[in-house]
Amino acid sequence: LIYPIFISMGKKFESFEEYYQFYLSKHTKPINKFFHLLGNVATVAFVVSVFVFNLSLFWLLLTPFVVYPMAVVGHLLFEGNMPAFLSSNPIYAKMADWRMMFEWLTGKIK
Length: 110
Description:
By secondary structure, the chain is mainly alpha-helical. Helix content is 59%, strand content 0%. It has 4 helices and no strands. It has helices at 16-25, 30-52, 64-79, 90-105. The longest helix is centred in the middle third of the chain and has 23 residues, at 30-52.
């Protein structure tokens, strides 16, 4: 099964709000949001561990390999699409990820 990875590649968003609506459309299932939550918690734990255990800052370069595998699993297995970070704006994608987590945990979105 091949997914259209770059379906929105190159799409220009006029604002973060416009991008966020696109982002939410790729995150409709709670199980996918849960996988994102796990990835975000694991990422924070990883970054904190680098400093607590006085590891080389080089380890921080591995941070994307902590969060993104969980996001990809959530998208491929449960949502049936590809993560937004593979589309047009990885910075907006990370900002939207944290906003979605906050809104999901506070009940603003389901």
